[in-house]
Amino acid sequence: MGLIQDEERKELLARAMRQEQMMVIGGAVFVVALGLVLGFATPTSSDLTSPVGRISNVLGWTYFAAWSVSFYPQVILNYRRKSVVGLSFEYQLFNVIGFACYSTFNLMLCYNSYMKQLYFDRHHENNKVHDADAVFAVHGLALTLVVVYQICVYDRGTQRLAGWSVAAAGILVLAILLDAVLVLTVATGVFNWLDFINFLSYIKLTITFVKYLPQAYMNYRNRSTVGCNIHNFLLDFTGGVLSLAQLLLDSADTHDWSAITGDVAKFGLGIITIFYDIIFFVQHYVLYTNRHDPALLHAQAQSERSERLPFLTDDE
Fold first, then answer.
1. Cα 54 to Cα 44: distance, rounded to the nearest angstrom
2. Which of 34, 271, 289, 304 is the most buried (most CB within 10 A)?
C-alpha cells in the first residue's frame, strides 16, 4: 500500500509541475497579447517620436499587464488552500502602505494639471508617468486589500503579524503626515506638493526594499516556498524588466535623462524588484524542493480516488 501511495505522490507532483509550466506559458501569452492590444489601441505620448512612442506604449501596457496579473496567482492560491500559512503578513502590510503612496504619486502626476505644471517648472520637461502606471498602482492597491481580507478570514495557523512591522508601519504613516504638515506650514517656494508626492515615491521605494525580506526569510526558515506563489514573482520580474526598458527608451528618445531622477520610484522599483525576484527564483527552483502544498496534493488524491470508487464497486 505504501508503494502505491509513493507512486501516486510522484504522479501528483509530476502533474503539479506540468500544470505550473502550463500556467507560466499561458500567463506569458496572455500578458503579451494584452500588452499588444492595449499598446496599439491607446494613444501614444506626444513627447516621443512616432515609432518609439508606439513601442513605449506596448512596453508600458505589457509591464502593466505583467505586474497587474502577478497579484492573482496568490489570491487564487489562498482561495484554493483556504489558508495563508506560508505567506508573510508583514509583506502584505507594507504592500498596502506602499501601493497607497504609489497610487497617489502616479494619479497626481498623470491626471492633476497643477502637479504636472509643478513638475514642468522644476525639470523643464513633462513627466514620464503613463496611464498604465496609474492604473497599475490603483489595481495593485485593490488586489493587496483583497489579500489582506483573505488573511483575516482564512486559516493563519500560528502565524501572527510581527510587532516590529506594526511599529515600522506606524513610523511610515507618521512621516507622511509630518511631511504634509511641512508643506502646508512652510513658506511657498521652499516646499510644495510636488515635494510631498516625491516623498511618497521615496516611501514606496523604501518599502519595496524592505517588504520582500520577511517573505524571503520565511521561505528560508521553513526551507520551503509552500504558501508563496512563484508565479507572482515570475510576473513581477517580467514587469520590472519591461518597466525599466520603457523608462530608458523614453529618456533616450527625448534626450531627457531627468526622467530617471524625476521618477526615482519607477526606476528604483524596477531594479529592486528584479533583485529580489531572482532571490525567490533561487529559493523555489534551486534551494528548496518542497514547493507544493501537501494539503492540496492530498485533496487532489482523495478526489481522484472518490471518482474511481464507483467503477471499482461495479467491478466487484
1. 6
2. 34
